[in-house]
Predict the structure.
Amino acid sequence: MGRVPLRPGRPVLHRHFTRETLVWAPLTRVVSDDEQGTCLWLATGSPVIRQVSEDGQGPRGMPFARWIAEPKKIIQDVYRGPSTLKFHPRGAAYSVWWLFDPELRFRAWYVNLEEPGITWDDGAVAGVDLTDQDLDMWVWPDLRWGWKDEDELEERLAFPEAYWVDDPDAVWTQGRAIVPLIEAGKWPFDGTWTDYRPPDEWSIPEPVTEGWDRPRQRA
């Protein structure tokens, strides 16, 4: 028997891990979930669970060498970034995000290079688990594009005992494989979903206070 799809509108934790350690988990809603992949809506103001240092800083607030040595804690917070539609093609080592401004006008795509996301459902709580591989790509509406965070990837590779990216060449290869789709304006860069609007009845989900810390789901 195959996996039961997550129903549209269901709150789902989008959990990011460094190997087995949970570091970031915004609460999204399911747009669709089928054999093509899982599509999620992350609204500005949604609850997010994230790892910070004892004084409240995130990993980008300090050099990586300091971050890995810092004591850390998990907090409940609020997502303050742009409202985003996130599509995880089934089994792919990347996801594509549609970024919208506060008036829900499309502004850019974002290609997040990552380990393939794994969907799970515990009944009361559901989620998509993955590891972000740091290197990303911006894609603008006119199909100009560029790399993002290549300096972050390079800095962290100097600490192999602490870093979660084992094969940076594979990450670069995956990113380069997407470039022809971008430059040709092919799916998902063909304008599909750039006019997306979430249903009016979708409110900001309530924070998940139990079940968010279940062990990471593996394939």
Summary: The chain has a mean pLDDT of 96.
